[in-house]
Design a protein that fits this description.
This protein has 15 helices and eight strands. The protein is α+β, with helices and mostly antiparallel strands and 439 residues long. A five-stranded mixed β-sheet has the order 1-5-3-8-7, covered by helices on one side. The longest helix is centred in the N-terminal third of the chain and has 36 residues.
């Protein structure tokens, strides 16, 4: 199984809700057969006898209640998802809700209980099989408890604070994967480099226009080393690529690489995913903040919650060594050019749109300033210019809003809560500079 097939299969399993319930449905057939054989072999029974019609009626009740659980759960979840996507952003459906393992396992329990109870009912036509009946009773009770828990869990899951927290968690995982090396000591970021010389051959995108989801960098590096050349990947993960656009530029001996082998190193899809896209979690959180700041919704507190997670993600990115765009082999020879977002890209994505639409709100302006000032204090020196530029732009934006002097003074105070806990003076609990603490 090739990398592209493995990635597509793994991505489909992670981003779909139906896989686990289908596996539970198929497993129920095996479970029914095993329990039925054990029942015949053990001849196990309860301390009191139950009449056959009573057992059949009970099993029919279990089936009916489980169907009700499934219908109610799916209908309520669909309505809740529609409301949450309308108020937050539609991109939370694929990135958070469909990836939730608790929802998958509860739905799988309902499906397993339904199938098991139907199988028990089919085998309870001439005599009572007490082991099957016991299993149905236990599963039905577990489904009832799970249904009650699902109502509470779904209500908590769809809150804005839960959604942005999950996005922050996913973003941290991707950042650790894409940028595994932490900064140690003084850090001087290298300037962006591009391959010199005219490419010997260019490979264009074929098939259908799509978005780049992931790239197998190891395969590209090995192919470039095998042919003693260099492979330039012309896009970033998350870019939309139309048919006929350049996908690879080949230099040196890499012009001999098979086109199909290189194309199999790139996964495409209809929409961005979070697996290798380091900026996508930022993009979704910013979208939630912008939706909250729209005049139709006017919910600046949700925007502050989004800035909390952007603050958290920027701290993680700022303390890591970002790629220098060129990947070398084991001997140090440059083999692959693969552009990734740099620090300024992350900062601008996190701040520019929120400042544009939310600076007129006290909560947003104060929380944004608190984030930028905190990052300016705790991150390495090389990260400061981009942060100071955003602080200067925030000041210019506030000046142009034509506020009253007292209002302008209030808007310029940093506040980690947005409005309620201004940082009027440096606390003795502020983190030490980066050169005085372990990286």
């Amino acid at each position: 199984m090739g990398w592209l097939t493995r990635y597509s299969l793994r991505s489909s399993i992670r981003s779909t809700l139906w896989v686990v319930p289908v596996i539970a449905y198929l497993t129920s057939f095996v479970a029914i057969r095993i329990v039925s054989h054990l029942d015949d072999w053990l001849q196990w029974s309860w301390a009191w006898k139950v009449e056959l019609p009573t057992v059949q009626m009970a099993l029919e009740g279990f089936v009916g209640s489980t169907i009700s659980f499934i219908v109610f759960a799916f209908s309520s979840l669909l309505v809740a998802i529609q409301i949450a996507s309308a108020q937050l952003t539609p991109r939370i459906i694929a990135t958070t809700l469909l990836r939730d393992n608790t929802l998958r396992w509860i739905v799988a329990l309902f499906v397993f209980t339904l199938s098991f109870s139907l199988g028990a009912l089919a085998r309870t036509q001439e005599k009572v099989q007490y082991l099957l009946l016991t299993g149905s009773v236990l599963l039905s009770g577990a489904s009832t408890v799970a249904f009650i828990y699902l109502i509470d869990y779904a209500a908590r899951l769809l809150r804005p604070v839960s959604i942005v927290w999950r996005l922050g968690e996913e973003g941290l995982k991707v950042i650790e994967q894409v940028y595994p090396s932490k900064i140690s000591g003084d850090h001087v970021p290298s300037a962006r480099r591009e391959p010199s010389g005219i490419p010997g051959r260019t490979i264009v995108h074929e098939g259908v226009s799509a978005i780049i989801l992931a790239v197998d960098l190891d395969a590209l590096r090995l192919e470039a080393a095998r042919t003693d050349g260099m492979i330039e990947f012309g896009h970033q993960v998350g870019n939309f690529v139309a048919v006929g656009e350049p996908l690879f530029h080949l230099h040196g001996g890499a012009i001999a690489v098979d086109d199909a082998r290189l194309r199999r190193a790139v996964a495409f899809g209809p929409e961005r995913t979070i697996e290798q896209d380091a900026t996508f979690s930022f993009r979704i959180i910013v979208d939630i903040a912008l939706k909250a700041l729209s005049k139709a919704i006017n919910d600046p507190t949700t925007a502050v919650l989004a800035i909390d997670q952007l603050h958290r993600l920027l701290r993680a990115v700022g303390r890591r060594h970002l790629h220098d765009d060129v990947i070398a082999d084991s001997t140090g020879i440059e083999r692959v050019y693969f552009a990734t977002p740099d620090w300024r890209d992350f900062v601008e994505l996190s701040c520019r749109e929120i400042r544009l639409y939310g600076a007129e709100n006290y909560q947003v302006a104060r929380r944004l300033r608190a984030m930028l000032e905190n990052l300016d204090q705790v991150l390495p020196e090389a990260r400061r210019p981009a942060l100071q530029e955003e602080l200067a732009l925030l000041d210019l934006t506030l000046e142009r809003l034509d506020m009253l002097p007292r209002d302008l003074e209030l808007a310029r105070l940093p506040d980690l809560q947005g409005l309620g806990a201004p940082l009027r003076a440096r606390s003795r609990f502020v983190e030490p500079p980066p050169d005085r603490r372990a990286q």
